[in-house]
Amino acid sequence: MEISKQIIFNTFEVDKLKEMKKQIDNKELLKIIDKKLKYNRWELVWVNLGTPESNLKEDNYNKSQIINDLKGVNIGVEFSLIHPAIIVSPYFLNKEKVIIIPITSFENHNCKYNNLYCLENYELLTHQSVMLIDQIKTVSIKRIIRHKKRLNQKEVIIYINKKDQKQIIKKMSNILFGFEI
Questions:
Q1: What are the DSSP calls for 59-98, one per residue?
Q2: Which of 15-29, 58-72, 77-91 has the lowest mean pLDDT?
Q3: Structural domain boundaries of the chain?
Q4: Which residues, 6 or more positions from 18, have their beta carbon under 8 angstroms from its beta carbon?
Q5: Cα(120)–Cα(100) distance, rounded to whole angstroms?
Q6: How far apart, in whole angstroms, are the C-alpha atoms of residue 1 and residue 162?
Q7: Long-range contacts: 71-76, Cβ < 8 Å, 24+?
Q8: What does pTM read for this prediction?
């Protein structure tokens, strides 16, 4: 079986990519597969954003202990728990950490605001979802997991489509720089 670049770019099951890697002796194709197996820009992933302060037993900790002693605890309205997110950092930065935009459910959000972008029709997202563009974060890749298909529990790589990418870039540039790129 001949394995081409096109097959690699269209294959999103992680197991299939790992199996292909074993069968290939072409260095160029091996590099492409290795890059694909790492977390990439515009990939949809799940991220553990930390423990909310409200999950701690109040009688055990005071505010200064939470801030000074308990690293990884999110205080007040800081985004926490496990959420889907989109990786926006380029591949070459993704050795130990990635830059992400967290995603939450659409409830109580109006996508007309510049800091929000609504996402629809993605396998990973089971309901209407909104990206919180003003909450861009850098997280360790140890906090990230890929989506697993429900039936066979295989990891899959899912990317944001080009149309959504362009709109997200416009909103990000508007928030970060005050103008659209």
A1: TT--HHHHHHT-TTEEPTT---SEEEEEE-S-GGGTTTEE
A2: 58-72
A3: 1-37, 40-177
A4: 37
A5: 18
A6: 31
A7: 74/49, 74/50
A8: 0.75
Looking at CATH, the fold of the domain delimited by 40-177 is given as SH3 type barrels. (2.30.30)
DSSP label at residue 134 = G
CB 125 within 8 A of CB 103: yes
| CA 96 remoteness from chain centre | 14
120 or 172, greater pLDDT = 172
Which amino acid would we find at residue 156? Answer: V
Q: How would residue 1 be classed by pLDDT, with cut points 50, 70 and 90?
A: very low
Distance from C-alpha of 10 to C-alpha of 98, rounded to nearest angstrom: 23
Residue 71 pLDDT > 60:
no
